[in-house]
Amino acid sequence: MKSVSVSDRAADQIRPVEIECGYLESNPASVLYKSGKTIVLCTASVETNVPPWMEGRGKGWVTAEYNMLPGSTSPRKRRDRSGKVDGRTTEIQRLIGRSLRAIVDLNALGERSITVDCDVLQADGGTRTASITGGYIALALAVSQLAQTPDLDPPVDPTKVLRDSVAAISVGVIGEEVVLDLDYRLDSAADVDMNVIMTGGGRFIEIQGTGEEATFDDTQLAELLRLGKIGIAELTRLQQAQLNN
Fold this sequence. Notes:
Elements: E1 5-6, E2 9-10, E3 17-21, E4 30-35, E5 38-47, E6 61-68, H1 87-101, H2 106-109, E7 113-122, H3 127-147, H4 158-161, E8 166-174, E9 177-180, H5 184-189, E10 192-199, E11 204-211, H6 218-243
Parallel strand pairs: 6-7
Antiparallel strand pairs: 1-2, 3-4, 4-5, 5-7, 8-9, 8-10, 10-11
């Protein structure tokens, strides 16, 4: 496959990523995650209870909430009010929650809940994938801090709670080319777009692929997944570099 220019990067390169852990003084398990011009603030908060339907089962819960701030896009995005959440927001936060729970041993967490909040400060494509990738870092920070809490009963072992890492990336077909990590300009031009969510160990969690008034064949699907794996591997490396600091 011939090389294409994707703005200032090759078709198999991800956008520049910046990660700032402990971004909020009020919550050490906070991460400012930047993927190109997309910026997401991810925070993880721990509660010493679980939803009523899980009480007494001896296992915990991990969930997520997602929100795009009014100024994150142009024109302005209206705030969700009075508990009303639009369908896109609901779908994305369920995706984030599923992706994070896939790598968590809820029994090892004990009867505790962790909520990962992903607030989009600026959107330029890939907000859901950035939320998953940054959200995992916030989750890992929260679990590590929980394990260091004195006299915790029952105690928490981070190596047992987090069985793997998780990251997500977008890929797409534009014309005849397969491109990794779509910003808004590329996403709006894509004939096919796909979100790939994988563990750091290389196992798939979820694949969302759609033809936009177009179709794709086996060869293109294989290339989409190949580039997705390349992007996930790089994101996993960046995640671990931050968590090992």
